[in-house]
Each structure stands twice: as structure tokens, then as C-alpha cells.
Amino acid sequence: MDRPLRIALIAHVRHPIAQPFKGGMEAHAFQLCHWLTQTGHEVTLFASGDSDAPGALVPLMQEHYDRHYPWHRFHGTEVLTNLLDTAFAGALPRLADFDVVHNNSLHRYPPRLSRRDRIPMVTSLHIPPFQALRQSVNDSAAPWCRFTVCSERQRDVWWPAGAPSSAHVLYNGIDTDSFTFQPRGNGRALWAGRITPNKGTHLAVAAAAMACGVPVAALANGATEEVIGRGGVVAAAETGEADTAEALATAIRQALTLDRRAVHDWATSRYGKRRMVENCVALYRTAMAQRDAPAGDVAFGQGDLPGGGVDLGRSAA
Predict the structure, then answer these.
(1) Helix-strand-coil percent breakdown of the chain, rounded to 5?
(2) CA angle, corner 143, sides to 137 and 146, nearest 5?
(3) What are 143-199's pLDDT values in tens digits?
(4) Residue 167 Cα to chain centre, angstroms
């Protein structure tokens, strides 16, 4: 039997990892801490000091930065960049003490540290690429430095010319026990749409609805067709039209004919928390097993890692 792991989970620090969640990244980090701890692993969360999640907490900063440096005002400024660089630089020396690191942050330091010092790491890429993070990802690919995206569509956005072998699709999971299966509906259709421009709110609604056995009818936006799968009908896929009320109406009528138990079973088997955790841990162990895989040494420049590239962890083999 595989032994439990000592896991460092690095979170985004714009908001606290605490309920009520400000967004999907905060919910993901909180739930992953909880589910990994439930399965017997020892998890240490690196996050803002006002976080409240299961396991030990190592504060990257006293409070989440959006409280004093709102993103909409300070994004891209030297003030916020220096604040975040200092916070993450302070955490890097501790990462070599863990079996594996799950990096849920958007900072450029952790993947490069993993690549240089052979620290097993899985980095989850929750958002479309921006230049600093894309460059860090491209610099850091290695057998022990793995990357995940939440859909095949997102994988193609990150690597349009083809993903490396270190990239994986890891679907986000939900606690399906929180959603009660309903064998019958009430004859109504529920409309759901995006709440913010860059968040897949509709995917969360679709996953929750499927867990209750409610078929989904949707337009083919983003990764919708991939995520819904057998749990519903995607308008564009069925009618050849996109983003029209007529196409969606046709999809609704077709979705109403689906077997609700089959929808429920599809959602729980594909998006349940157990499957997500099992897939995460499998990737952790893959990264750990590949720590000594052949790969050339790397030397990062000033700004790529703190201190101009001074070694902060294990030296490269």
C-alpha cells in the first residue's frame, strides 16, 4: 500500500482560502486541502494568513493582497509585483521539505524552482495564459514538473502547437454527496449564464445539475460540450447552429428526453471528488518517481527566480 504523502499546496493570494469563496481558485484550493486530508495525506497550505482551510497554514503574507492592493488598481504595477515576489520568495526554501508540491498560484517562481532543483511539483493552470506565467511554464517542463488544465479546450489554449508529455487534463471535481438525485423534474427549464466574463460559471452549474440527474441544454461555448458529454445536449453540436435561441430551444427539448439516472451516473463517475483526488495523487507520485529522470541543468536569470538564481532547495542532480 502506498504511504500517505506530505504535500505542500500553494494557493493564489489575491483572496483568502476561506468560505464564502471569492472564486473558483479559492474553492479549488480549499476543497483539495479538505479532500486530501480526508484520504490520509498531510497537507500544508501556503496562502494568505487570513485563510481558513483544513491542515497546517504557512502564511505567504499576513492578509490577502486585494484588501490593501486591489487588483483592478495595482495589477501590473511595480508595487504589487514586488509584494508578490517577496511573498513567494520567502516560501521557496521550505518546499524541498515535502514529498510533492501542488502549485495553485499564478506566480512565476514555483515552476522554475521545481525545474532547477528537481522538486516534484504539479502546477494547475486555472486561467488562460499570460506572458509571465506562460514563459515560466515553457521554461520548466520536466518529468518531475507536471502541469494540469481543467479541459482539453484549455490544453489547446495553452499549447496550440501541441502539449508536452508533462501536461495533463485534470477535470475539477465536486462533492456529489452534496447534491441529491431527483428522478423527476417539475416540467421547468432553468437558464444559467456567465456571471463574469472570464469564469466558467455555466460549467459549475452544469456539473451540479448533472449530479442531481438534471439533463443540461447548452450552447457550445468554451469547454461546454466536453464537460457536459453524455449529461446533456449542446445546441451547436446537434443543430449546426451556434448562439441562437432556436438552437437552444431544440437542445432543451432533446435534453428533456434523456434518462436522468444516466445523467447522474455520468456526472458522479467523471466529476466526483474521489476521482479528482485519485488523479491528483497519481500525478503526484508520477512527479516523485521522475525526480531523477535525465534532464539538463538549467540556469535562470535575474528576475526569473529570487536572488538571481541562488539555489534555495535541493541542488540539481
Answers:
(1) 45, 15, 40
(2) 45
(3) 999 999 999 999 999 999 999 999 999 999 988 888 888 888 887 666 565 555 444
(4) 13
What are the boundaries of each domain within the chain?
A: 6-173+273-298, 176-271
Q: How far apart are CA 49 and CA 51, in angstroms?
A: 5
Q: Rounded distance, CA 64 to CA 52, Å?
A: 12
Q: Any residues with CB less than 8 A from the CB of 28 and at least 6 apart, and which?
A: 104, 124, 126, 172
Q: Which amino acid, 102?
A: H
- Single pTM value for the model: 0.82
Sequence-ordered strand ranges (E) for 32-175: 42-48, 56-61, 100-103, 121-124, 145-149, 167-169
Q: Which helix (H) or strand (E) holds 6?
A: strand 6-10
In degrees rounded to 5, what are phi and psi of residue 195? -95, -35
Architecture of domain 6-173+273-298: 3-Layer(aba) Sandwich (3.40)
Greatest Cα-to-Cα distance within the chain, rounded to the nearest angstrom:
64
Instruction: Judge residue 121's burial from the number of C-beta atoms within 10 Å of its C-beta, 0-12 exposed, 13-18 middle, 19 or more buried.
Output: buried
Q: What is the DSSP letter of 101?
A: E
Cβ within 8 Å of residue 44, ≥6 positions away? 6, 7, 8, 9, 55, 56, 57, 58, 98
- Is residue 122 classed as helix, strand or coil in its secondary structure? strand
Question: Rounded to whole angstroms, what are the CA distances from 310 to 114, 118, 177, 297?
Answer: 14, 14, 47, 14
Q: What residue type is 227 in one-letter code?
A: V
Rounded to an integer, what distance in angstroms lies between the CA atom of residue 217 and that of residue 257? 11
Tens-place pLDDT, residues 244-281: 667 777 788 888 889 999 988 888 888 888 999 999 99
DSSP secondary structure string, 205-238?
Answer: HHHHHHHTT--EEE---TTHHHHHGGGEEEHHHH
pLDDT band at 114 (very low <50, low <70, confident <90, very high): very high
